[in-house]
Design brief:
Oligomer: single chain
Strand content: 15-25%
Order of helices and strands: EEEEEEEHHH
Structural class: alpha+beta
Distance between the termini: 16 Å
Helix content: 25-40%
Largest sheet: 5 strands, antiparallel
Number of helices: 3
Strand order of the largest sheet: 4-3-2-1-5
Number of strands: 7
């Protein structure tokens, strides 16, 4: 599983995993409750592999930011909740990505990153943060 198969759907909580593509969209499964829904091409969908976070010098891919969270938390759930206050969220994010652009990255964005990391961790999908492999070997590799 890679971040290319994990989506955020505007107006819907959490993350979704693509189950199958259809002629008019895709069938996706919620990482929160495992319910499947059909999303059409008209839905505002963001693929996690295409999201980046603004820093003072460049845009850092979400994959790299989530890897830094994983390193900070040793692969465990975050020490804070996405429901914590603005100051707590910003302090946490500053530890993870000190050069993030505070004018362009809002507390709501930080909440999403924390929530998404915890969903990926809970569903044992943190392996998706590794760079996509060229071969389609689905066996689990310990690195």
């Amino acid at each position: 599983m890679s971040l290319d198969k994990i989506l955020s759907i505007s107006g819907k909580p959490g993350l979704y995993q693509i189950v199958t593509q259809t002629r008019t969209g895709a069938v996706v499964e919620s990482l929160i409750d495992k319910k499947r829904i059909t999303v059409g091409a008209h839905s505002n969908i963001s693929i996690l592999s295409e999201i980046a976070i603004y820093t003072l010098t460049e845009e850092v891919p979400l994959r790299d930011v989530l890897k830094k969270v994983k390193e900070k938390e040793n692969g465990q759930p975050t020490s804070i909740s996405h429901k914590d206050g603005k100051d707590t969220l910003e302090e946490f994010f500053f530890e993870v990505l000190p050069e993030y652009d505070e004018d362009r990255v809002y507390p709501s964005d930080i909440k999403k990153v924390v929530q998404w990391y915890n969903l990926l961790q809970k569903n044992d999908l943190l392996g998706a943060l590794e760079e996509p492999k060229e071969d389609k070997d689905t066996s689990s590799e310990e690195e």
